[in-house]
Amino acid sequence: MTRPAAVLVEDLRIAYGTTWALDGVDLDAAPGTTLGVLGHNGAGKTTLIRALTTLVRPSTGRVLIDGLDIVTHGPAIRQRIGVTGQYAGLDEFLTARENLELIGRLAGLRRGARARADALIDRLDLHDLAARRVGELSGGSRRRVDLAASLVGSPSVLFLDEPTTGLDPIARTALWDVVADLTTTGTTVVLTTQYLEEADRLADHIVVLNHGRVAARGTPAELKRIVGGKRVTATIPTHHLANLPFRPDADPDVHGAHARVTVTVDDAATATEIVAQLDDIGISVTDLDVTSPSLDDVFTHLAHTGAHR
Ligand code: ATP
Description:
The chain is an alpha/beta fold. It has two domains: about 5-225, P-loop containing nucleotide triphosphate hydrolases (Rossmann fold), CATH 3.40.50.300; about 230-290, YebC, transcriptional regulation domain (Alpha-Beta Plaits, 2-Layer Sandwich). The protein contains ten helices and 14 strands. The chain has helices at about 45-50, 75-80, 95-105, 110-125, 140-150, 170-180, 195-200, 220-225, 270-280, 295-305; strands spanning about 5-15, 20-30, 35-40, 60-65, 70, 80-85, 155-160, 190, 205-210, 215-220, 230-235, 255, 260-265, 285-290. The chain is globular and about 75 Å long. Adenosine-5'-triphosphate binds next to strand 2 and helix 1.
């Protein structure tokens, strides 16, 4: 028998008073995959995570975690999920190891709690932090302990709510490596993030929420195809702006004698032609980038053009 979807959401609507925080959301995540949930402030991400973690009931629709309905199986679901947030409930005065052991005992592990704490310290490479009080840790270190805490109960589905907000790039990359590793052992990860690069790096599938609805969905590559094409960015002498053989995407970025212009074209072959044309006309290019669209471009595109389901 095949395992059911780790997360299944059908026509989920949740109202706060007269506001539909979620207004007909469908989504699913296969076991052992990472689902990224993106959206502007107020799009409904937090409400979705609250529903998936049994903290709020659907007004209509249904939510299944590992095939169990959140309305009828709340306690069973809470035993098989892990949740991290920006403000986790770690005890500031206990060490990282003591926190992990305490959480294990509270989860009913009894004498196994110590071994579980040790295993997580190994797995997340927390050896340097284990004996330090959590209140003394930097934000990045604390996030790693928080992540370890959410893994104590060996969750089948792990919810990461903006796991790297406020971290410096090095701490962020270190946490990404840990998260990327989780799905290799079969854990399903649901991730909300403000960082599109984070979703690009970690998520197998992404849903973009907008005003409580799914505005776009797909793999990172599929979403980038919504924008399509290649982006050519060239730095040229400002006095040549009038001679360009194409119409730039936006007003050129002029810095004295030099200007940066960007144009989006259909494919790599057209990008090469554009560059050759500049050369033919005698426009000297001092800097040149040819890039594929990023998820940031997808977001900007969706903001201008509306929903793609
Ligand atoms: P952010 O990125 O700012 O956290 P979000 O995508 O998580 O936003 P939600 O917090 O889920 O969005 O909010 C979705 C909508 O529901 C918003 O219009 C918000 O004002 C509204 N909302 C959320 N919680 C409540 C509440 N407890 N009472 C009333 N309205 C709420």
